[in-house]
Amino acid sequence: MDFDIKMPGDDEKLRQAFRTRVPGLDVRLMTKAGVQEFQIRDISSTGFAFADSPRGYSSGQELVVDILLAKRLFLGDIKAKVMRVLDNGIIGCNFAGMDRRQEIKLDKLVLEVQKRLIELRKAKKEAE
After folding, report:
1. At a CB cut-off of 8 Å and minimum separation 6, what does 41 contact?
2. What's the sign of the alpha-carbon dihedral 84, 87, 35, 68?
3. What mean pLDDT comes out for the span 73-101?
4. Residue 44: is its pLDDT beyond 80?
5. Where are the domains of the chain?
6. Whether 105 contacts 74, CB under 8 Å
7. 18-127 in CATH: which number?
8. Taking the CB of residue 29, how many other CB atoms lie within 10 A of it?
C-alpha cells in the first residue's frame, strides 16, 4: 500500500489562527479609486479578509491600513501583505510588523469575540 503525506509549508497554510467576524469592524486603505472603507469579513491575530474588486490587488502587494471599530480608529497605520486574491473578490491579508501594543490590542478583541461565542453556544446547549 503506497501513500504520501505532505505537510504544508508556511505559505500554503490557509488558517494559522482562529478567525472571527466582528460586527462594525472595517478596514480603511488607499485604493486606485482613493481612500475607501470596506467591511472586514473575518479577522484573526495574524490577518484579515475583505471584499473588493480582485483586479485591484495582487499576491505579495503591501498595504498600509487602518482598522476601524464602529467607525472609530481602533488600530492605525498597520502594514499588511496581500496573501491571496480570490475570484469572488475576497482579498486575504496578513499583518506585517505590528508592534507589541498593537498585537495585544488585536488579540484582546479576537479573544473577547471568542468568549462571547462560547457563552452563546453554552447558553444554547443549556436551553435544549
Report:
1. 21, 48, 49, 50, 51, 90
2. negative
3. 93
4. yes
5. 18-127
6. yes
7. 2.40.10.220
8. 18
